[in-house]
Structure formats: C-alpha cells, structure tokens
Amino acid sequence: MARYDTIGIKYNKYRKADNRIVFVLKDLLGLPEGSTIIDVGAGTGNYSNEFSMLGYKIKAIEPSKAMREQANPMPNVEWFSGSSESIPLENSSVDGLISTLTVHHFSDLSAAAMEMWRVCGDSSMILLTIDPRIGEPFWFHKYFPGIYKQLLDAFIPVEKLISIFTLNFSAHASVHKFPLPSDLTDMNMHAGWNRPEIYFDYEVRRGISPFALADEAEVQNGLDQLWSDLKSGRWDKKYGYLRKKASYDLGFIFVKFVRTISPSGIAKARRLSHANIASS
Length: 280
Description:
alpha/beta; Rossmann fold; 7-stranded mixed sheet; 42% helix; globular
C-alpha cells in the first residue's frame, strides 16, 4: 500500500464513496447505530466518514501516510497506521469489519484473514472485491491488455478468497453481486464501462492504481487507440449500447463472512480434539 504515498494524491476528488455501496455494506452488517466498525484499508476515509455520519464509531486502518493525511477529520472516526496483516487493535474489539476494494493490495491473504478474525472475534466482516471471471465482458482489455492482465492476477477467484477466510476459522460466506451503476461516484478502473471518456483525465487515472503503476507507453498507446475509435464512431458502434444501461455486472461482489462457532468455541473444540487424540 506504500504505492499510495505517491499515487494517492488528490484521491478524494475522484474516489468518492458511492452511497449505494455504503448502504449495501450497512445492510449486510446489520448493526445498530453506535456500533464500532473497523475499516481495513480505509484510504482517505471516504467510506469511514460515511459510516460516521450514519451514527457508527469507526476505527480506520490505513498504511499510507499520504492517504491518511488527506482524510477529512470526522467525529467518531479514529485513525490508525496499520495494515490488514498488522492491525493495532485488541482481540475481539469491534462489532463488525468492512474493507472496500482493498483485498488485492493485501500482501499475505492468509495472514490478513487471521489478523482480521482476531480483531473481529465472532463479529461479521464484509469485503467488497472483484472477480472479473464471473462478470460480463469488459471492453477495457482491448485497449489496455497489460493492465487488464494485472487485474486478473491481483484479484483471485472468489472461491479461493472464501476458502482462505473460512478455512480453520469456523466461518461461512455468502456472496452478493453488485452490478456497477452507470453513475458510480467511486471512480475505480471499471467506472468508465459506459463512459470511456473518463480515462483521458490524468487525475482520474492517478487515482486508479493499475493505471498509475502501468508502463506509460502502454497507457498512451491504449489511449490513442481509444481516442481514435471514439472519434471515428467505432467504439459506439460496438459498445454504444452500454451508454443506455443503468448498470453492468463486471464481477463486483460483496462477500459476507460470519462465524459459525465463536472463537472460544473453536478453542474448546480444539482442546477436546487434542484430549481425545491423547486418550486414544
């Protein structure tokens, strides 16, 4: 996440929290106002602040100093320097956990799962992530194939993600699809599915890590091809129908993890299992 110390500048301008994402997270958590929620990979705090305004107490965890410094101070939002693999909070100290489009930045998913469950205890966690393998085709790959390949490499299949976060944690998962709205305010890499013109804005691209970290020659080549196809009408002839759609399924999913046995129950089961083995 240190990459955002350089590419996260002006992140707030284009990566605004989308209210539809906020309310899905809220509904899936199902927590009353006043509950304490941890936001792992909070960025500049856009989603943390929205939850604060809904009456929740937020523990915002973010490794990038540049991102934390852009955060707008809000009541009930407490900031911590930390990562998914190293969360500076006590065991079972929160009522729920959210993490929006950050899983692909975790350096060690298994370590992250262990640490996040440690802090959550028997509370639920909601991850917003992407599995491009289960979504509709995205024309983006035609113009930026290298960047799109990074996407496939970074976002693991949802089945593998679920396995990592449920294996050995006595938890189960439910998957909730989120077709992207046509007017998404959180301008991630997929936000231009129906408005390709946004990719020509340098500041928009700077807030999208695959663009900001990509080879400049590849980015420029893709932009030149896209501009040529838009100018000639080729893009609209092939993909123009997308401009009329209200939403589009590109593999965005909310994954809700719920403990089926409390941590104390897991420990008791393990003790009983060891005792049975010893006596046999």
